[in-house]
Protein 1
Amino acid sequence: MSSLNPDQATAARLAGLAQAPDAPRAWDPATGDGSLVEDPAVRAPLVLGNRSFNWVTETVCGYAEKGPGKWFWPTFFLTSQIAALMPLMILYLAITGVGVWGLNNQVDWAWDITNFVFWIGIGHAGTLISAILCLLKQKWRTSINRAAEAMTIFAVICAATFPGIHVGRIWMAWMLFPIPNANAIWPNFKSPLLWDVFAVSTYGTVSALFWFMGMVPDFATLRDRAAKRIMTGRQIGGTLPLIGKTADEVRAFAYGLASLGWRFSSRHWLNYEKAYLMLAGISTPLVLSVHSIVSFDFATSILPGWHTTIFPPYFVAGAIFGGFAMVLMLLIPSRELFPGMKDLITMRHLENMAKIILVTGYMVGFAYAMEFFVAWYSGNAYERDVFLFNRVLPPFLAVEGLDGQLKYAPYWWAYWAMIFCNVVSPQVFWFKACRQSIPVIFTVAFLVTIGMWFERFVIIVTSLHRAFLPGEWHMFYPSLVDILTFVGSCGTFLTLYLLFCRFLPQFAMSEIKNVMPQASPHYRPPASTGGAGPSGVHHAPNKEGV
Amino acid sequence: MAATTKIYRTEEGKDLYAVMAEFATPADTYHAAEMVRDAGYQKWDVYSPFPIHGIEEAMGLKRPILPLLVGVMGITGACLGFAFQYWVSTVGYKTNVQGKPYGAWEAFVPVTFEIGVLFTAFTALFGMLVINGLPRWNHPLLCKERFLGVSDDKFIIAIESADAKFEPEQVRKLLKDAGATAIELVEDIPDAPAAPAAH
């Protein structure tokens, strides 16, 4: 819109074709962007700039209608090229066999399961934000839950691929599910690997339902806007090639289909809110169960380094930790790239997430320490050796073994990378200046994401590469296919996220409007605080003390 | 008593579906809803961009039955999931795992839980849709340009002509007294599209 002269810009705005430009606001040293209120008695605003409901609609729908800007398609092209590596590598794997990975007789789970646990862990933040923070009445979640839920779905898609392709004969992967078959074979329900199939597929399904249900009213908003533009002859976007329909006709149809005919009825809202609350209620134990069950894959084995009861809570805390880091890594660039988003995702949101990273980082650090303590306290020599001589001791601290040879942990660099990223780096969030500095938050989030990948690598590979029989000890070296499959999964994740940014409502508009001050039936405009107007008087006979 | 529903027509000769009124703020809408409730109307609704806090009481709505439905279905799902695992492990395909009894229930807990969750989630979403009469392709209200503002920042109350107490002038007066900023008639749309020959 910068090419228009001011009069044209005003005319466009009045005609509903453009929105008011964002007035730059000064950074207040006391409250930052206005959301960092220190006084606990004062509620920080969740949407900055005294915005109207209409501003929320215009801003959020604008992202999906006008497109994100010139950066979008080149970025999308790049990420989709990277994403294409994944099907390519899977095809190569399928027609050749799992030998194309760096696996060997000893290390028979490596990058495949590392990537699986890494992605499924990232997928936990979305449901945490939408379900647990919903039950805890954390209203600030409303402006980040949609993006986090989208991220969850995409991460689960990436995660579910890896166990599917690591089975060797990919065309037999359907036998993971209890499907009647000619051989009358049923799965073994006493196996944690089967529990995992159910946990991950249930989690993916329920997250998708939750995500879709949250979007239904927002789809209806997008539908109504397109329909209104068609009615008034002010369509945006021309006729699409091949389809022969205008962009708004396609929008009205596609968003209309997805909105299921939602018409914002209060009778519907009542059931909707109940259903949403119940989904949140059931998703909370679900999200805790999924990573617990993932950890059973390891914990129920007898392998030193895996066989430990701390795994379920440790994995869940780690998943939330890594998931929040990924949410931050996606939202911080979004905030810069999409106009107006800084008023929806305020510094307070980022600071809150930084605090969650600090807390969950401590939980993870505690779990690392506890594993050590138990390895020592149990008096189990295998357990102790796994930690000291598989994971921790670097070559320069090598100790002499009984056979006179120097013993050190070959994967010490992976272990210490994990400790640095997951335990040391979040400590900067003790300082307010760091919690409120976007570059610092982004850097820590990036480090945590790397650290969480290393955590899974450390658990899986270092425990496996030296098990009970020294004659079978082997190092693991990833092959190019290993690496490119993982890179491809990152590309898939980003591509799906970019498509989400382009076509779907990135914010839960109805939920954001609901937490704005003027949404309350008790709200009085600040100007008329003196005399209570008719709208301020509350005379509900059967409603008291609200 | 065979109550005959009167059919009202607009000036253009179309059947009347409802009278709708726009309100400026959630507070106005809330109080107007109380007035409509107290006037004894049954077939009416409040339309708002988000669920207005406490509107169900202002409208006099009953507690939804959805939670009961979801609870029953969740428990049903868990029971079915358990029964299926038990059948598979003891009858369908016996596998001796670590010498444990075939029907050792402890190992069935995680999948039982997951299937219960799955049933709960599907019932919550689809039960909500069925109870709300959704999905549907169109609705008389969605043909009104003014109504489309509800999905942005407008608040609308619509009293349907099918209500036993419906009388256009009274409804209009009630909504006007309640503080409506605009009142409009909503034409009905036929349930089934008319045959092409009729045009």
Protein 2
Amino acid sequence: MSPSATDRTLRLAWMAARLIPDECRVFVGIGAPCSAAMLARRSHAANIDMIFESGVMGADPPRLPLSTGSPSVAAGALMVGSMLDVFATLQRGEIDIGLLSGAQVDRLGNLNSTVIGDPSAPKLRLPGSGGAHDIAALARDVLILMPHEPRRFVNQVDFVTSPGHVAGRSEATGLGNGPKAVATDRALFGFPDGEMTLVGHYADIEEDAAVEHVGWPVRKADRVDLIDPPSAAIATAFRSFSGDTT
Amino acid sequence: MSSDGSSKLVGLPEAVRQNVRDGDLVFVGGFGQGVPFAIAREIARQGLSDLVLCRTGADILFDVLHASGCVKGAIFGWLGNPGIGISHVLRRAVADGSVEIEETSNFGLLLRLHAGALGIPFLPTRSLGLGEIANQAPGSHKPVLCPFTGEQMTAVSALTPDVAIVHAHRADKAGNVQLFGIAGDTLEGANAARRIVCTVEEIVDPAEIRRTADRTILPAARVAAVCHTPLGAHPSYMTGLYDRDDDAYMAFDELSRDVAQLRTFLEETIHACPDHASYVSRFVPTALRSGARGAGVPA
């Protein structure tokens, strides 16, 4: 039996939340990235500093926010600063982990949230970067969250909105390390030498399902870890904030 | 001119007539909260044209003005229906070529506005050197070497809007403006602009401003016009006063998929409402109105 939509959202959030250590500073995008940070905060990482591009630091949203400027982002936060404050924090290299998603990801961890199709005559125009490009460039490490769906994992994205392991990153000063992992609701991919590589999957699915929908023959690590699905306690923690969004 | 003397308090139609012109580059304030929808609806009512809107995280205010025929271009970092999805108006406008887009990242646009606010022609950043965003907008992004360290950076050009439209909690008649809660890029954009038009939930005595001067975000000297416009941010929210009307944003996602439905929506919410008060009485849910009555300061 395939998991319900709620289950898949939880499995996606947990796959990434596991990788967020306590005490770190995370720059959080809206949607699945925010779910992962909120879940980490409610399980093993109570002291992470959640930062939103709207200028909010030390955030502790009671409910999953609809947007980075939502009231729940400011509710209970330690500081409502300015956008310039938080992007300055990012550019100074003080963000340990940037949490991102997008419409497409490719084998180098590039993310596309700008256009589907030929950029000069797009099939679908998307909202664009927002702060995602800046987070991808400047956070020390980047965790990408992607629903495990067809057409999302492509050999090459239609447009590089947020750079992954592209030429120029390692030579430049003050840039982050690029994507560390791609978490899905089934699998975990790493970038051992700059290319997306299967390093683990939930223990209750087969390896074939873990690489399904990936649009190229994806590499597999010598050791592929089996990862425990979220426990009942984790599921309860997830439900505590994932209901109504504001 | 005294900073708390001469009144800049005018009606919304007059403020727009005097300060927003066809072809202006318009900075749109607010970020989640305080999106200046009442000013936007008045701009549409007056039939202004060829505006270029700029804003880091633009929301459906762009859709409303573009679909009203007021907009020829947009400079943005993100443009969609926040928390809900894509902008169907932008999607169609890109497909039919009815909008000129100049795009960057949110940090990139923030720095362009900050450069404008600082009165300098550009600012360098470590961002925007990788990927394809900068290549798409070579007029506002160029590689630059730091003259001191030799580091490779990306220069973004200053943006100086003709006018900024801002909605805030309160001001005195002179135009000393106070805002509480999330401001996003509002200050950078307003300070970069030549003129600022500000609507507020409440007009307060200058003595109240002086008592709480640490909450003033814009001094009267920067503000061209101030309008008493309660619920002027609807359907966005104001901290401590009223919540975001999520139902309205969701309804807009549906109705804006269809051009005819969108036209009807604009007819009803803008042109059939002679003024903001009429819009409020017809389209702002009663539950949201109670919070906005009276005090302009959140508890």
